[in-house]
């Protein structure tokens, strides 16, 4: 009898203890913060990419697009210098699957007539700024041309830009790199094979700007001035003191963006339709820029 009684007592204690532990454990779980997905926590990135029709256009957009696919909470603003939307560009962007907006921004006629260098990509980038002014409230924007090479870690670094951030760009001019010159942690000038009287002799791929900072400068935009686009835009962000510029890529000691340029490809020769009119080559023809 006594044995049965003590078994019953131990069982009661065991069950009671287990219940208390379970209740405590549930309470503990309910106190844990629910993990937020990365894309909610991280500030948004707006990537402004000018593009125009040429033999290598779809190849460049494909390469850049799959780079951007590794980056969360990003909106890709693809802006084409054209009068009509290109079904092939839209097809390519849809295939890649990076969230995007596609706009047109033809270069004004007066600049098309320029005999020498044309201010390419300016109307596109200004259109991107217009989108940001109208639709973005926080985060950071960056001008990413479609022909450059980007290490994706630069996107995670630029995401937290408070005003303007800068970093080196490889393969620019005969110096091989364009970079702020840093001495004792401060910008002491700029290293670039072509200074050209610029206050900010930097490459388009070498800086990012906070959306809030842009909103505080309602007149900031890019000038139609070949060679002076970056400088003109950064100057239009005044007041901007060099001491306020945030240095990325480990205080400008690493190259995470490269100003690669694709070899200019000739347009493809016309397809001989009488020979190939009933073959797959007719379909492939759509992807090529023909003479
Ligand atoms: C857009 O249209 C204008 C006027 O018709 C023309 O001059 C210009 O070349 C066109 N632009 C492009 C990129 O096709
Ligand atoms: C703002 O975003 C909407 C929705 O995507 C778009 O239709 C509109 O064109 C954008 N505004 C500007 C100025 O780009
Ligand atoms: C960059 O330089 C600053 C100032 O010298 C220093 O405080 C900081 O730790 C450096 N950051 C990196 C990533 O090297
Ligand atoms: C930039 O800021 C530094 C430190 O705050 C100051 O000494 C300098 O005068 C400023 N330069 C300009 C052009 O405002
Ligand atoms: C197209 O191919 C046909 C048949 O081979 C040939 O007779 C014709 O000259 C070709 N046309 C051109 C433009 O090359």
From TrEMBL:
Catalytic machinery residues: 230
Keyword Ubl conjugation: no
Molecular function (Gene Ontology), one example: galactosylgalactosylxylosylprotein 3-beta-glucuronosyltransferase activity
Superkingdom, natural source: Eukaryota
Record's catalysed reaction(s): 3-O-(beta-D-galactosyl-(1->3)-beta-D-galactosyl-(1->4)-beta-D-xylosyl)-L-seryl-[protein] + UDP-alpha-D-glucuronate = 3-O-(beta-D-GlcA-(1->3)-beta-D-Gal-(1->3)-beta-D-Gal-(1->4)-beta-D-Xyl)-L-seryl-[protein] + UDP + H(+)
Glycosylation-annotated residues: 251
Main location: Golgi
Topology with respect to the bilayer: Single-pass type II membrane protein
Binding site for Mn(2+): 147
Keywords on record: Glycoprotein, Golgi apparatus, Manganese, Membrane, Metal-binding, Signal-anchor, Transferase, Transmembrane, Transmembrane helix
Signal peptide: none
One GO BP annotation of this record: chondroitin sulfate proteoglycan biosynthetic process
CC terms in the record's Gene Ontology section: Golgi membrane
Cofactors demanded by this protein: Mn(2+)
Family matches, as Pfam families: Glyco_transf_43
Entry's EC annotation: 2.4.1.135
Pathway involvement of the protein, from the record: Protein modification; protein glycosylation
Sequence intervals crossing the membrane: 7-27
Primary enzyme class: transferase
Subcellular location(s) of the protein: Golgi apparatus membrane
SUPFAM superfamilies found in the cross-reference section: Nucleotide-diphospho-sugar transferases (SSF53448)
Family affiliation: Belongs to the glycosyltransferase 43 family.
Record-given protein name: Galactosylgalactosylxylosylprotein 3-beta-glucuronosyltransferase
Lineage: Eukaryota, Metazoa, Ecdysozoa, Arthropoda, Hexapoda
């Amino acid at each position: 009898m006594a044995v049965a009684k003590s078994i019953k007592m131990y069982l009661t204690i065991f069950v009671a203890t287990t219940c208390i532990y379970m209740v405590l454990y549930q309470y503990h779980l309910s106190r844990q913060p629910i993990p937020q997905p990365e894309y909610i926590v991280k500030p948004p990135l707006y990537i402004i990419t000018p593009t125009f029709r040429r033999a290598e256009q779809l190849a460049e957009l494909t390469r850049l697009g799959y780079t951007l696919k590794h980056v969360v909470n990003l909106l890709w603003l693809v802006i084409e210098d054209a009068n009509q939307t290109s079904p092939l560009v839209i097809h390519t962007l849809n295939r890649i699957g990076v969230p995007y907006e596609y706009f047109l921004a033809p270069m004004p006629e007066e600049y098309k007539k320029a005999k020498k260098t044309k201010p390419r990509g300016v109307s596109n980038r200004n259109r991107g700024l217009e989108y940001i002014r109208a639709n973005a409230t926080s985060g950071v924007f960056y001008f990413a041309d479609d022909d450059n090479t980007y290490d994706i870690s630069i996107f995670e670094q630029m995401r937290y830009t408070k005003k303007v951030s800068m970093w080196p760009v490889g393969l620019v001019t005969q110096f091989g790199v364009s970079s702020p010159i840093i001495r004792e942690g401060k910008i002491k000038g700029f290293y670039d094979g072509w200074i050209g009287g610029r206050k900010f002799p930097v490459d388009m791929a070498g800086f990012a700007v906070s959306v809030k900072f842009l909103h505080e400068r309602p007149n900031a935009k890019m000038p139609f001035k070949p060679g002076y686009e970056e400088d003109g835009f950064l100057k239009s962000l005044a007041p901007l003191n060099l001491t306020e510029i945030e240095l990325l890529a480990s205080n400008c000691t690493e190259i995470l963006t490269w100003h690669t340029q694709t070899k200019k490809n000739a347009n493809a020769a016309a397809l001989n339709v009488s020979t190939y009119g009933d073959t797959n080559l007719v379909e492939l023809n759509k992807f090529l820029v023909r003479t």
